[in-house]
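SAMPLE LOG
Freezer: B-3
Tube label: C17
Construct: single chain, 714 aa
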Amino acid sequence: MSLDRARGRACRVVQLGRSREKRLQGVGMGAGEGKKGRGPVRRGGWEGGYPEIVKENKLFEHYYQELKIVPEGEWDQFMEALREPLPATLRITGYKRYPEELAWHTNLSRKILRKSPQLEKFHQFLVSETESGNISRQEAVSMIPPLLLNAHPHHKILDMCAAPGSKTTQLIEMLHADMNVPFPGMLWTALWRVGMPLCWVVFKFLNIFLSSGDGTMRKNIDVWKKWTTLNSLQLHGLQLRIATRGAEQLVEGGRMVYSTCSLNPIEDEAVIASLLEKSEGALELADVSSELPGLKWMPGITHWKVMTKDGQWFTEWEGVPHSRHTQIRPTMFPPKDPEKLQAMHLERCLRILPHHQNTGGFFVAVLVKKSSMPWNKRPPKLQGEPVEPREPVRSSPAHPTEGAAADPAEPESKAVSGLDDTDITERTENVENSGSKKDGVCGPPPSKKMKLFGFKEDPFVFIPEDDPLFPPIQKFYALDPSFPKMNLLTRTTEGKKRQLYMVSKELRNVLVNNSERMKVINTGIKVWCRNNSGEDFDCAFRLAQEGIYTLYPFIKSRIITVSIEDVKILLTQENPFFRKLSSETYSQAKDLAKGSIVLKYEPDPTKPDTLQCPIVLCGWRGKASIRTFVPKNERLHYLRMMGLEVSAEKKKEGTVVAQQSASSCGPPGDEASAEHGAEPAASADSSEDMIPDVSVDAAPGPSGPAPAEAALPR
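STRUCTURE (predicted):
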């Protein structure tokens, strides 16, 4: 799919969003909605009988008034905004950057969207499009870090604190910005919806439980009663270690974006100042003030104090009693040297205040790496290379107690976000080609301690070059010689392979060479699924809709070009007979053997009123019919794009219900169930077999005469 076509796909969703947004005008919010005050607020009958939390915390107000992070004269507006529910925001998956009409926000809270009867259709639209990966329900301020990272398809990116995954999916979309290149160079549930083959998920469990940042008070109202300064004091050391490790991994010239959902300088400026100081010039804060025009933000502060949970203030480390040294650390204070402090340019940090643009609170700092960190000047050592003795780690002269914040046993890697990194890729490939790994197995390393939750992950195994499984697939779909079969993997080392996944070349190198150092939970994109009765056909594997846009550029056979009316029929009827489809479609399908097929709709630029973005669907050519294997929510998405509004009712088992205008594709026939035995067994994901009910809506869409039904044999 080209970038222009992807834009067309995104614009269509934006139009649908706009049409619904207009209908929301004038909808009542319920008693008390929008009123501002310090006490509990009742908002009609939509919130149920949950106990109300008083949005009041005197220690919080005292702390931030003393630190003066809010401009003079704006304190009341700041507090009023914090007491209001956070508006619902969403981002369109469009493979290009916000704010080009790809991010939207309403003045409605998420709770009202869920509970209001007047907004039921709009809520169903949001849920369905989110599940199919076309929309991400993402807080507005959370969209800022990926934009400031300025990621491009040739970059390698490490997201060190990824859950629940909204920023991760946004970053992956940037990596896939050039859709002409098949493989550019709640977390996993967010990623599989997007459907992209160059990311993997690694979990590292930490034995900590801490409250959310105070920038989230508008959506996590428990923070109001639980907030103390102890939260930030406990998090400071962990955040500094994570940031330090990230800086070590960063390529020279690359960017690192540090962000928190906290307004507290102990988690924000104090971490950045300590990191800059220990880097000894290897890092510098980038001036990004002009990169997001229109964004309102406050510059980072250069002076702050530290307060204990009982309200005791300290202005410098020397004044902290010894009994407090385990709770308060020297890195929490601003540097004493005025020249050193000025050279850090902490004012280049960005603090987002809730009342400035109706958002949550947020902090962002962008760092650029100028050279290697001072304690890690040596080039990276990979597996298979001799390890030379290392010099002892040098502690930062200003803070000797923080010298071990970085892991001295790990070498500095350059395979993280930033510039091209051909050196590290070539060296990794050399190690791989030397045969240091056996059989392409990159599954989890042997457990040395207790198994987390008692589960053992199945390994990821790359398909060997001589595996007899692949030639029938290659022949059946006439795959292009450039198809990277070495990037195919499965999750079993014995027995029948049920599903085949695909990753990029770069990700393959990472997986093969790091299996003993990390536990991979999930990776790749599903491209083929085994049919239960696969031996009865020329190929045992059918195409998976999840990976069809990745796989399609390599497929040279079994492609049927369909009309927009054909697409409507295929998505609303279970197994339409050939005679229900256009004669052009039948002429392409009649000579094909039974089995998996690709159904491709190409827009006609001479007909601007019709859908102007391509659609690629996985289908099955039966004895006398064609069916699609498309998940339910993806079906709904395509139908909306064609101007058909989907009803809330679910279809009854074994029936197909579709209400469409006469100018569309006509009523379905009663033979929709098709002949038995001509279709493969249903996939494990039963949503692929669910046909939605549809009804005509005022949403704009293509129209035209009904297709002529040729008298074709069944």
